[in-house]
Design goal:
The protein has about 140 residues and is of the alpha+beta class. The chain has a single domain (about 5-135), classed as Histidine kinase-like ATPase, C-terminal domain (Heat Shock Protein 90). Helix content is about 30%, strand content about 30%. It has helices at about 30-40, 45-65, 105-115; strands spanning about 5, 15-25, 75-80, 85-90, 115-120, 125-135. A six-stranded antiparallel sheet has the order 1-2-3-4-6-5, with helices on one face. A hairpin with a 3-residue loop joins strand 3 (about 75-80) and strand 4. The longest helix is centred in the middle third of the chain and has 19 residues, at about 45-65. It starts with a strand and ends with a strand. Residues about 5-15 have low confidence and may be disordered. InterPro entries: HATPase_C_sf (IPR036890), HATPase_dom (IPR003594).
């Protein structure tokens, strides 16, 4: 039986932080896409910006699912500020796993759809961080 956990930790200096944990299975990516769209809409992102961010989160999760350990969970941290949404997705990885190179098509997609994208891997954990700032208009 799979569980989805949603928690609201203490905000940091006015920021809203939402943690969402789902099984590392493609069937649960819709939950993360929906949460992303809802939080971006709360910031009054334009419809195109919301869709770009949903696609970027989906792509980042796909990268992580490819290297996730069996039975792992995707941990997603959404940080909402006045004009930006940061999405950090992380997972435990199989030994020796590597994320795609920054020159790969997948990374080109992430950087085209967000303000910035970064990744880090330490030990058996990989994290992808996406930042999207709302455009004025």
């Amino acid at each position: 039986m799979a569980t989805v956990t949603l928690t609201h930790p203490e905000p940091v200096l006015g920021d809203d932080v939402v943690l969402l944990t789902v099984p590392a299975d493609g069937g649960y990516l819709g939950v993360l896409r929906t949460a992303t769209a809802g939080l971006a809409a709360r910031l009054h992102f334009a419809l195109d910006e919301i869709e770009d961010l949903r696609i970027a989160v989906d792509e980042a999760c796909a990268m992580l699912l490819a290297i996730a350990t069996r039975g792992a969970e995707l941990e997603c941290r959404f940080t909402v500020t006045e004009d930006a949404l940061t999405v950090e997705v992380s997972v435990t990885t199989v030994r020796g796993a590597r994320l795609p190179a920054e020159s790969s098509f997948a990374w080109k997609v992430l950087t085209a759809l967000t303000t910035s994208a970064a990744a880090e891997a330490s030990g058996q954990r990989a994290t992808i961080r996406l930042l999207t700032r709302r455009t004025e208009g």
